[in-house]
Amino acid sequence: MRVAALLLAAGRGERLALDVPKAFVLLAGRPLLAHSLEALLACDAIERVVPVVPSAWCSGLAARLGPLARHAKLAPPVAGGATRQDSLAAGLSALPRDFALVAVHDAARPFVRAEAIARVIAAARAHGAALLAAKVSDTIKRVRGGVVVETPPRDECHAAQTPQVFRADWLREGLDKAVAEGRAATDCSQLVEALGVRVHVVAGDPDNRKITDAADLAWAERRLATGGGA
Ligand code: CTP
Ligand code: MG
């Protein structure tokens, strides 16, 4: 089963509110997307990595990646769309059909490790669909209109991470179904869940945290400065 990865990096980073898209913000001197790109390229199971970036940033990507730009597995960038789901669709349509498994990773998670990527790919090889997720320590409330409507059992609650890895045919079918039904998913797992597929959960590293706002970026800088490694 050939495996390709899509690195979703086409968001604007509105909550970070800097003058460049979030994936191009420098973290320890390198664009945010370079950190997880390095981990994806280092994972032996992955044959090709397709970065999906804002259209205006396609031509300048290689110059920003340094030596990583010359890696044999790195495909030319694809222009993303207005939403994460649109960017996923753009990346998927650029992928040759002979990749049976697709790993989708958010560039906003710079600290994913090649070892965790390999584990979630192995689970997807076995089951067709798998994601990294971490158990939550807070009790989760589902709230509507300022009122609690549900408290799911805490030991069943997990925070979804990426990569999420799927049979490419299931992911394409889930995406088509969501588009046809006018649904917008915030992660890929929802797309295949809606097909009735069982998505297997693989323990994610707590450090595989998403950089969303200025506090997250400051945390990431501190982590690298104190030798946490990327
Ligand atoms: N993403 C994308 N295309 C979009 C929107 C998001 O490829 N149109 C990617 C982002 O680059 C990011 C991942 O999806 O790696 C998760 O999205 P998020 O953390 O929300 O990033 P942004 O959309 O960039 O941030 P914001 O929502 O604050 O604008
Ligand atoms: Mg967003």
For the largest beta-sheet, the strand count, sense and barrel status come to:
7 strands, mixed
Give the count of helical stretches.
7
Bound small-molecule species = cytidine-5'-triphosphate, magnesium ion
The secondary-structure class comes to alpha/beta
Query: What is the radius of gyration?
Result: 17 Å
Low-confidence stretches: none
Total DSSP E strands: 11
Task: Give the proportion of residues in helices.
Answer: 25-40%
Assign an overall shape.
globular
Mean pLDDT: 96
Strand content bin? 15-25%
Biggest sheet strand line-up:
5-4-1-6-10-7-11
Q: What is the N-to-C succession of helices and strands? A: EEEHEHEHEHEEEEHHEH
Instruction: Give the end-to-end Cα distance, rounded to a whole number of Å.
Output: 28 Å
Describe the structure.
The protein has 230 residues and is of the alpha/beta class. It has seven helices and eleven strands. It has helices at residues 32-42, 61-65, 84-93, 114-127, 168-181, 188-193, 214-225, and strands spanning 3-8, 26-27, 30-31, 48-53, 78-79, 101-106, 129-135, 142-144, 147-150, 158-167, 200-203. Strands 5-4-1-6-10-7-11 form a seven-stranded mixed β-sheet, with helices on both faces. It starts with a strand and ends in a 5-residue tail after the last helix. The model has no long low-confidence stretch (mean pLDDT 96).
